[in-house]
Amino acid sequence: IGLKQAGFLTHKDIIRGGIEGLCKVSGIGPKLAEKIFNRAKKISQ
Question: Where are the annotated coiled coils located (predicted)?
């Protein structure tokens, strides 16, 4: 997944990349990635 740095991801990028993608790109832990992912899902609805 060719994602930008975590600070510049759109919620669509985050949802496309998934939680694992977030962890890989930004180096954050899975729990934090899950929070960000869930927030992105809410925003995109």
Answer: none
Q: Which amino acid is at 42?
A: K
**pLDDT reading at 1 higher than 80:** no
Sign of CA dihedral 7, 18, 34, 24: negative
Cα–Cα distance for residue pair 2/39, rounded to 1 Å: 21
Amino acid at 11: H
pLDDT at 38: 92
Question: What's the rounded Cα separation, in Å, for the pair 14 and 21?
Answer: 8
Instruction: Answer whether residue 42 shows pLDDT above 80.
Output: yes
Dist CA 45 CA 29 (whole Å): 25
